[in-house]
């Protein structure tokens, strides 16, 4: 990304963990003035005071063109950009930390659980039933990862270490390390029809909204679906139908169109769906501050920002 030249004096940190962030930032050598607030505590006066804002969520009705820099404390920036206009004079950056490692391990854990047949053995144990089953080797399965950025690449790296053939799907189709082959969107369906696992790591953009629909799911047969990207990328009714028809054998879902997931949602009671509460890639206070301080330093030194968001692409 391009270099930037900004003077930042006042920074507003908005986060549920604002106290932890305050403690850590106060130990850093920074000259700026800070305010640390929860979302419930933020006032218009706070917003008007700030040159820069670091937060997880977009503040309703706030005109971000009033500030010089916005830093997302999470990996995603769809809350700021999706279906919204953004002043390109306002710098937007995002947090980069251990998200790739966390999501890779999350995905691997559910793949191993499936291949090692943990749930079946647990059921057998409850019934005191001795029934030998042969686990399947990771190297004998294929996976496709939608999204070949840092998170997708790290996931591909981990899976490929076990000998798995990992395919990628991205906006450009550009080849990346650790992928057997990368396809552009809407390509490669015939080659991907027999993959064992589908992993979504894509950000939410106009292109990826409801990408996983009836048409796409119909390209697969008995695949496990893991969603660690964004909930709005999945047509929920289409996913349920895909499970019923056998295109999807099971689903592990960490993100949803509505969060928290409503108690009456059909996902909760579905025997082939596992739900986790958006924990596959949490931002820890230490990592949040480390990335934020590094970004602030690079802005002050007019250095390249590797975590600058491309507004047109949406990530």
TrEMBL record:
- Protein name, as recorded: D-2-hydroxyacid dehydrogenase
Instruction: Work out whether the entry's keyword set contains NAD.
Output: yes
Tell me which SUPFAM superfamilies the record gives: NAD(P)-binding Rossmann-fold domains (SSF51735)
Keyword Cytoplasm recorded:
no
UniProt keyword annotations, A-Z: NAD, Oxidoreductase
Entry-linked InterPro entries:
D-isomer_DH_NAD-bd, NAD(P)-bd_dom_sf
Q: Which Pfam families match?
A: 2-Hacid_dh_C
Q: Which GO terms describe its molecular function?
A: NAD binding; oxidoreductase activity
Q: Which domain of life is it from?
A: Bacteria
Residue span(s) of domain D-isomer specific 2-hydroxyacid dehydrogenase NAD-binding: 109-280
